[in-house]
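Today's session is about reading a structure prediction critically. Students often jump straight to the picture, but the first step is always the sequence itself: look for stretches that repeat, for charged clusters, for runs of hydrophobic residues. Only then move on to the predicted structure, which in these notes is written as discrete structure tokens rather than atom positions. Here is the chain we will use throughout the hour.
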Amino acid sequence: MAVKSFGHFGDQVTLTSVLRQFQQPVCLTFDFLIMESKLGTSSTLSVYLLSKQRFPTKLDMNQRVISSKGDWKRGDVYIPSGFYHVMFLATLGLPYQSDIYLDNIKVGHAEDCRESKIKPTGKFIFKYIARS
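Below is the predicted structure for this chain, in token form.
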């Protein structure tokens, strides 16, 4: 996936999988590159799990450099067992200076994730405040 920064600051692009049953916890790994021509121009890449009802849970992403220049990084996220859509959310930085690239998305053993095995609770709390 390549997200070219021809749009406006803050524009978002998503890549969302079909609903999938993860019968056991897994580690999702992927390679990504976020271009930054000047300090503060960068985009962001986030990973979410969406429940069957499409409620989002942001995942903590571990990352490490995998290229000699330090540009490409490998990210991994822990996915617990259950039914989920996996969504990558790319948020653009400054136009023409903050491209995002995503490649080599793979599902592996849960033990392959290096840290942060945080399980989403699926609980959302909404408050309704009556105004008189």
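Discussion point for the tutorial: The domain at 2-112 is CATH 2.60.120.200 (Jelly Rolls).
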